[in-house]
Design a protein that fits this description.
It comes from Sutterella massiliensis. About 45% of the residues lie in helices and about 15% in strands. The protein is of the alpha+beta class. The chain has one domain (about 5-300): FdhE-like fold (Alpha-Beta Complex).
Length: about 300
């Protein structure tokens, strides 16, 4: 997570014509910046990570075990607990400033006990099965507080948990992404996996950018851990369909950079941003927020 890239992107889209985009940036911008600061400040003792072998990298990109499932990362409890508290405080501060939370709800948020999510056992789980950790965290929360508190988990707790994990794993995921790209061959003899080779989550978006040697290249981006990996240009990122007749791009006439890659086979619409320059210095998280407005408009029923 690059603070400078996030700041530049937030400034670039601050005056976006869509009020939904402006509202999302106002909410998520401070959280992304806080997560970037947390990630940058982490010490080697806070996140202990072993570099994967070439064999482990190759197996991961071919659909084998994800890199996190190999037990390569250990998250220190104290550092993660601190990240949870900082992100929770920032989210509450932002919600208050934007007028999105009432007094009673704010008091409920302030009383959240984050300890059950930052135990040694929970973090061993998180560092090996990120999607599973989030699912089991919801089950734990409901077990402790009942179904009446489900909304609090969905609207606050899962956001904080997700960003704390992202901040914790971002450096490892970014390094793995670089190693994977270094081993990527110009002619690929296999279908690239549809889920993240690092954590196993589904990608949230794609980025298409020019490269020095091979023209435009497409990458999928994981919002859960921060990894990215090359992907076929003519292929659905959701179901893997490669039929040209089933795939098309849609976009706002005034914005050709942010598009949806729509698959007629499965109905998925993958947010995709087209860059004129190389992707270095771009904030995929912010670009995703901008493209999400297009996705919402595309999914809205026609009266």
């Amino acid at each position: 997570m690059n603070r400078n890239a996030i700041e530049r992107a937030l400034e670039k889209y601050a005056g976006h014509k869509d009020p939904t985009v402006r509202a999302d940036l106002a909410l998520w911008g401070p959280l992304l910046l806080e997560a970037a600061d947390i990630s940058q400040a982490l010490r080697p003792s806070d996140i202990r990570a072993n570099e994967p072998t070439n064999k482990e990298l190759d197996q991961a990109v071919r659909g084998g075990p994800t890199l996190l499932s190999l037990g390569l990362v250990k998250i220190e409890e104290a550092a993660y607990a601190d990240a949870l508290k900082r992100l929770a405080a920032k989210l509450l501060e932002t919600l208050k400033r934007e007028g999105r939370i009432g007094k009673d709800a704010a008091a409920e948020v302030e009383s959240i006990d984050w300890a059950p999510f930052a135990t040694r056992a929970a973090l061993l789980d998180a560092a090996s099965d990120l999607p599973g950790y989030l699912e089991r965290s919801e089950a734990l929360w409901l077990e402790l507080h009942g179904e009446k508190s489900e909304g609090l988990f969905e609207n606050f707790i899962v956001i904080v948990l997700g960003l704390a994990l992202r901040a914790s794993l971002d450096r490892f995921a970014s390094q793995c992404s670089r190693l994977i790209e270094m081993r990527d061959k110009p002619v690929v003899d296999y279908e690239r996996r549809l889920t993240c080779p690092v954590c196993g989550s589904h990608p949230i978006m794609a980025v298409v950018a020019p490269t020095p040697q091979s023209g435009n290249a497409k990458k999928l981006f994981c919002g859960a851990c921060g990894a990215s990996w090359k992907f076929e240009r003519i292929r659905c990122a959701a179901c893997g369909d490669e039929a040209v007749s089933d795939l098309r791009y849609v976009h706002d006439e005034a914005d050709e950079a942010h598009r949806l890659h729509v698959c007629a086979d499965c109905g998925a619409a993958t947010p995709t941003v087209f860059l004129k320059g190389e992707e270095i210095g771009v904030s995929p998280d912010v670009e995703y927020l901008v493209t999400e407005a297009l996705a919402d408009a595309f999914a809205a029923p026609v009266n």
